[in-house]
Amino acid sequence: MNLPPTTHDFIFCDLSAKDLLNYSKVNRAARNAVKAFYKRALRVENVLSRYFDDDELRRFRILQYTTGCLVSGSTALSFFERQTFPESDLDLYVDYRFAIFISDFLLSSGYVFEPFRTERKRQAKNIASALEAMDRRIVHEEQENEAIEGFGEYITSGIMDVFSFVRDGKKVQIIATGGPRNPSPLDVIFMFHSTVVMNIIAYSHAISFFPKATFIDHVSVVNETRSYRADQDPPRAKYAERGWKIRKDIDAISFLDRNTVFGISDRYVGDRKCWTVPLPPVTDFSPWSWGLGQDWMLLSNSWNVQQDRSGLEIRACRFSKPTLSHSYALGYWIWNAVRKEPMFQWDDEDDDEGEGDGEGEDEDAELLQGKEIQLIDDQFCDFIKTISAQPRPKEDQRDAFVRNTLLQAFKTAREKYPDVDLEDHPTASAALRLFEWLKRLVRKLPELPKLTFRFAQDRYGLVWTNVDIEIPSRCISEVTLFIEGFYDVKIMKRDWRINVELVRLAE
Q: Residue 466 burial (CB < 10 Å; 0-12/13-18/19+)?
């Protein structure tokens, strides 16, 4: 039965994203009804009207187009969750060069600067002096985030300062990014404490980077890109209180299957694993060509999902040049391709792989002094679009054998113990240990071995992995020495609940 849109809204507004997803699978009419509902429900006015009236919101969105300012934190989460968090602030991430424009807008809208003051940190009483102090630190290549207390949710490399403004009990915070290595707002967001807050509202789009985990499974995975800090616990606890389950690690299947949202892969802003909502343009506004909030600039950013032995890592390499209007966040494969392109080359022999570029920018700037700089963002983004469409190098055949065998084995374990919590199943860190060890072993053998997996629960309900490796007799001595001399075998049993046994094949 076809219901009027208002009736759908009355019903759908109380359904979770998971419920709406399930309902949309019933038939085409249901899918269209859910799509139409989201068009009406996912509007920036719904989350920003708490802070700005209609005219202020219009001006703010034009500023987003001009400066590339991103809304993130609880407000961006609220946009997709369709739930307001009354105690939350509005977090605005912007390149430090444009913080003055955002602050001028807030002051003109009646907001008052509230300097941050503790024993370790004392901001100037007026915003102009506070901004000047930030500029001086940048000149001397100092990072402010190490000196800020109480901003655990924001403490990541690349934040130069946080400026707070208040009006009628509402707080807006400008998080200024940049500094010596030129990280963009997106760079900082990719270093957030966990995946639940990796959502943005830009001028052109609202995008959630891990929507299935965040809104369907209500899970937030800890980002291990930065070493553990105790001040990251309170913000994680805040989202746990709001209903998200905080996980230190993902499961083995999610790691081994590259098609899952947490599988080791290249990711792109706005890719099919994202939840991307196009936003309507501001009425009676004619965008100019040099705005940093243009959609093609935003969608040219990328990142990598990686698995370390300590957990999940979200990584992006920073790329900037004087001929680009701002820095970009790039996944390693894209970053490496860009570095080899003559148009974008620079002297970076001392560059820190994975941390990004910027080492040669001062030299580039010296060469360009006195010359008119022609920005090449359009050519840069076209190049990235072309590279992104190219196929990746195929995985080594033996490595693929190990990966696929492990993947199928852990899927079997999931089927055998469907009621066991994912945290009690083999984790991604355990799978990584076994994957790396088996790859080394398989490379030593003249032919692919037969791997047999057996799973069992211990008295605590934890699932153990037992691997039988069938080895030809002629190879058994060499492989036995390999296993006995490899400390990982003991570690796998002690820390990751993995037993490895050799089975001699008769020849």
A: middle
